[in-house]
Amino acid sequence: MYTLANGTSQSIFWSYNTQDKTNPIFQFKKVYQGDKAKNITEGYQLNVVQADKNSMTLKSPVAIGSRTAYIVYSFSKQ
């Protein structure tokens, strides 16, 4: 489950895909009440830039015209 600063919460199913050792991927999908994660086909994939026991940095590619930009997410343990 994740919770935003405004108090909104969402249950998720997440996994860490390391098939490509140089580009691990954090994957998650929203799970609503009564749903089973295995039946949900839509979700999100974010490239793992850095992860340790206290923090994690993820990035998501976004196409802007003919170029690629990245949205960067930084998480820290509290």
Number of helices in the DSSP assignment: 0
Average pLDDT across residues? 91
Helix content: under 10%
From the alpha carbons, calculate the radius of gyration and give it in angstroms. Answer: 14 Å
Low-confidence stretches: none
Category from helices, strands and their pairing: mainly beta
Oligomerization state of this entry?
single chain
Characterize the main sheet.
5 strands, antiparallel
Distance between the termini: 15 Å
Q: What is the number of strand segments?
A: 7
Q: Give the SSE order as H and E letters.
A: EEEEEEE
Strand content: over 45%
Strand order in the sheet with the most strands: 3-4-5-6-7
The outline comes out as: globular
What does this structure look like?
- There is one protein chain.
- The protein has no helices and seven strands.
- The two termini are 15 Å apart.
- It has 78 residues and is an all-beta fold.
- It is globular, with a radius of gyration of 14 Å.
- The mean pLDDT is 91.
- Helix content is 0%, strand content 56%.
Task: Outline the fold blueprint.
Elements: E1 2-3, E2 9-10, E3 12-17, E4 25-30, E5 44-51, E6 55-64, E7 67-76
Antiparallel strand pairs: 1-2, 3-4, 4-5, 5-6, 6-7
Offer a quick outline of the entry.
The protein has strands spanning 2-3, 9-10, 12-17, 25-30, 44-51, 55-64, 67-76.
Describe the structure using short key phrases:
two-stranded antiparallel ribbon; globular; 78 residues; mainly beta; single chain; five-stranded antiparallel sheet
